[in-house]
Protein 1
Amino acid sequence: MAGAGFQASENDGTWRHPAVITQAADSVEAQHRARVKRYTIIMSFRIPALLLAALTYSMFENAWISVAIIAVSIPLPWVAVLIANDRPPRRKNEPRPYNYGPESFTRTEVPAIEPARHTVIDG
């Protein structure tokens, strides 16, 4: 339906032309659930790794293999937190919050501060 000054388009969300939302980002809740799931999956390898180290030591009586398995499991919590806190990658059309290019360091675009008049009251 076209209103005053507005034109109807194919993407306006009418019943004849439903709005296309396949490009919409996941909700914050869905992103959080996915991050919790990744964290849980990564951390679920830690206890079995420690049990595998104990089992390996009891079977082969070689401490080096067990220490290697434990050494691999030590950074798992750190890796799990880093991966769980990572946000989805930015889209190409998503605006960037900061501009780090060489043009961001030019001072020509920064407006100068105008001197203000201050009234002094003697007392």
Protein 2
Amino acid sequence: MRYKQMADQIIADIESGRLPGNSRLPSLRRSARLYSVSMTTAINCYHYLEELGWLTAKPQSGFYVSQPALPARPPGLPRFESRITTPHMPPAAGRMSGPLGISQLGPSLLPTAAFNRSVKRALRHSSEYLERYPDPQGEAALRQALASHFAGYGFPFAASELVIGNGCIDAVRVALELTTQPGDAVAISSPCFNGLLELLALLDRRVVEIPSTAEGIDLEQLEHHLSRRHVKAGLFSTTHMNPQGISMTPRQKQKLAELAETYATPIIEDDIYMELGHGNVTPLPAKYWDRSGYILWCGSVSKTLSAGLRIGWCLPGRYLERYRQHRSVGQFGLNALSQAALADFIGTGQYHAHLQKVRSLLKRQISAYQSFLQNALADNIALSHPSGGLVLWLQSPGLNCTELNRRAREIGLGIRPGCEFTTLSLYQDCLRINAGWPLDYEQNGRYPARDALQQLIGLIQHP
């Protein structure tokens, strides 16, 4: 829509400093002439920017650039002594819907048309894939495409070292089944992605939550448990962690690899958000510093491209043969046509181009969500400032996340309460918000993300 294009230009001028805070914008009539649009378009644009918090209307005076709000303080990182606890499967609550609860890109950010072209090219060679079982390790073309792609980040590996699976969570599951037994304890970060906690509960593993820090995790506590053999493995996201958005520093990642080697303990690295950084440099995984093969590096296109493809991978290091065998028993590979389409999408450069575009959009999107929440909730919240990924971690003193979640479900609003990210009595005043849907995305005459965020704000303001 023309008014959104006009709004994007004004936002870019504000972000660049060409329109400083509290400066007055041209009148609606003058803006209509400047941008060669109708008065109706100019009015829609200004009102839209006002709703998003970029402009403020002053009666009898005009529209002004909103004074940039001071960044909200980050949520607290509780300090505690790690101990062995038991995760539990949450009660069945039905499939979550809506833009805020599930960490994923909004439909408008997906390169559907470009990927469909890759699917059509794969279909031209369908007989090659329909006449045989797929390779249990993954189609060679996809493994080679992924190896070439990640080499572009300065992270080289051989295609023969990679195993393709059904998404990242499946890659993690196989890694856990290979390296631990029911009843074993696994070291995790705190807070930890609720999906990993549910997986650990399903596999009958116990956990040791390691406190998060501004640099990553408390490596001293981790080493304490490794040295005393309290844990059989570690399971950590290392870049743009879900839910708090923290990335381990390069020194932390290197130290994590050294600890794995020193104590001969497998570390499973869930690196699903690696390619969704908001800057120009993609951080290297801890696997980069792995010299002995104790790190099993897992990833996927579920967050970057399509959750529906269900394609992920693992670089299992010294566990390669066992991992490959585990994948092949009872499973005769993954859909070969899907793998061929993804290999084509990566090999033609479309995946790289998509990532370049979506990273810059996410940076602006995260900022828009932060501004929206801060303008509505003022000084009553602490808010994460992630350097990448799709989610925001919000803390509101006195918030009862369990009660908030109950009320949200009553009105059909999906959110992730903080209590789902721990086995301890922590994060009761926190919640995770997916920021992957643009606030200006329109669907059937509505704006799903913006409307959901306004509903959430209302629930927080009126407990």
Protein 3
Amino acid sequence: METTNKPLQKLNIFSAKGVQMRTFHLTWMAFFLCFFGWFGLAPLMTVVKTDLGLTKGQIGNIIIASVAATVIARIAVGKLCDSWGPRKTYTALLGICSIPVMTVGLVHSYEGFLLFRLAIGVIGASFVITQYHTSVMFDKKIVGTANAVAGGWGNLGGGVTNMVMPLIFAGFIGAGYLPESAWRLAMIVPGVALLIFAFVYYFYTKDTPAGNFDELPESIRNSTVKVKGTMTMAMKDPRTWALFLAYGACFGIEITFDNIAALYFFENFHATLAVAGILAGTFGFMNLFARALGGIVADKVGLKYGMLGKGRLLALLLAMEGIGIALFAQSSTLTIAVITMLCFAMFLKMANGVTYAIVPFVNQKAIGSVSGIVGAGGNVGAVLAGFLFKSSSISYSQAFVYIGVAIACVAAIVALVNFDKIRTAIPEANTLETANS
């Protein structure tokens, strides 16, 4: 199995043999580092707020900026994966985005910080490449699980950064640097890691199980790579937009919470910077298993009830997530807040996994474009949520209540979509495997 040039039918997470499993591990690691760089500033925002004299409105703009650029970047990157290949696309993204991560410490004004946060946000497009790469490396029977595990472990970077960045910051404080210098130096660490991994990804992965796009035989390349109009195909399918909304309601809220959690616990419950970071990190740390669980359950539901069953599962998880967030907003003590956070986090992250257990089957000839549009939906959701946290007339707790209601509405829409039509696309799955047979 390890030496085959076809998509794998089993996911052995303890193996790194063969191009499929090596790519699987390297792609979630790359995504993990991208998340680390993307949200490295989030747990340090209390320090940055004091250093730059930021207002609540300015912090809201910064949160929006951190996810806004990713909307366009994910769509563009999805198209590049279909035409240029995931290996080169990921390498370029890692290398280019390492620059603003390393150099954000050079800014000394709100305007400069806002622009750098916008530039760093481009790295969020990494998710689309990760999902594309795992989609072509695994068989349709297991692709939902593979996508969910890779995405979940990558998202884990959002939790780890909330825990680790305060420690890196404290390390520079211990070395004698003032807080206004320590947060700037701390961001160099994830930036360097991203740059190094760009080279690792280029030399140790392949675009497909059969090789890189420019190495494939002409017959296979014409049928699997040089497909024109993939973006149009994806945009014409209403299921793409249903998943776009769903991902905005789950992943969009996840990255919003990654941005605001530490500050929320710090200001609403008077937790220390370290404790707030740990609590926020716990939310992200659930990606270790929760998103993967969503993918596993989705694959099992799909085998028994088809894609219609997967769609109903997604709607149910979104509804439970919305209720959980509304309850979290009403928490009167830190203990209750943490308990309700863990509950809605489980439903949210499982919904992430279920969404991308459906994505690969919408159109096998346009996986990158569908992944890009749906992925962009996550960031559109984050941008819209960011406006709520920016408002001076709405408290953070009220913002969470509004978000919960909006998610419940999206759940109702998803429940009405006939995902069962996707069955017509399943025989085309793994076109690369068919071409090799």
Protein 4
Amino acid sequence: MNTQSPLPAPGAPLQHYVSIAPFDLQSVEAMTSEQSKVFQASQLRLMWWKFRMHRLALVSGIFLAALYFGILICEFLAPYNLHTRNMDYIYSPPQRVHLFHDGQFVGPFVYGRQMTLDMDTLKRNYSEKHDDVQRIRFFCKGDSYRFWGLVEGDRHFVCPAENGQLFLAGTDRLGRDVLSRIIYGARISLTIGLIGISFSFLLGIVIGGLAGYHGGIFDLIVQRIIEVLQSIPSIPLWMALAAIMPITWSPILIYFGITVILGLIHWTGLARAVRSKLLALREEDYVLAAQLMGATSSRIIGRHLIPGFMSHLIATATISIPGMILGETALSFLGLGLRPPTTSWGILLTEARSVSVIAFYPWLLLPMLPVVLVILAFNFLGDGLRDAADPYK
């Protein structure tokens, strides 16, 4: 039996099913609570939700936030003062942390050490004394220091036992604790990347923005300068710029000098990215409207064009900071950057420039570990920010 409705006769009007209810401008289609939550969310909230889905970037962001918080209180976190020397424990290898002694739970502790000198190789050999249990103390009094060079203090997060030793990352040729020096060195190595990228961004946005917006002869000159700078090998350029700084400068002046050098080298890539973006955006209708209303070039670039791709700039910054950190590490490792008594990860790696030192005392390469972890974290964070910049994809 055919239950389909018969077709209308030729020429007969078609039936239309149209709601005769009055039209309400404020009415919206029925949405679930989840759909309504997304529909009413702001742009920043959508970006956060997208960034949170990138687990690796989220973990990297937490890791970097913890590191940058740690440089604020590095004097408290380090077991020893930056310049404390333990002359009886020169080139002492890292100590192992134990929890149980003779089958009984003692808590975190290390065994005391005894040093013997190999008369054939003149190498110091350390052996553990299992009858000397040295419990690790927390939130304790230890070496005195000046917090940020201003306030006297002696409180530490972790300390060795009374009249004991705690070298979790070993010691160097002067008996200084490597872990404490790594913690102190983070303050220089991490902040030099932020200051350097700020200087680089200022140059890149201003020069690239003017070149992309105005074009013409200015754009031509800027592009030739960028090509010349990018064609020069990095190491000779670093050496030339570092040689300009007088040897009589204080460590603070050298620190800011290195940041200026890194900023002068890394602005070219950002300038080209800003230029290419502005070449496309300057043809938009809202730019023409701003020009007709009498807005100046600086206002159009700063208020209308740059915010249009600020998320891209933020992602670029997180990827560029590792280059700054590597630059400082390379300069200091070559002896062209920061100099003692300033401490950075690059300066700590200068202790391991000799092959024989690496063969006998491999723990002196441990400052390389935070460099690798920080660079990976910044790259993962940059990937997450780049994906979150367009939450609708």
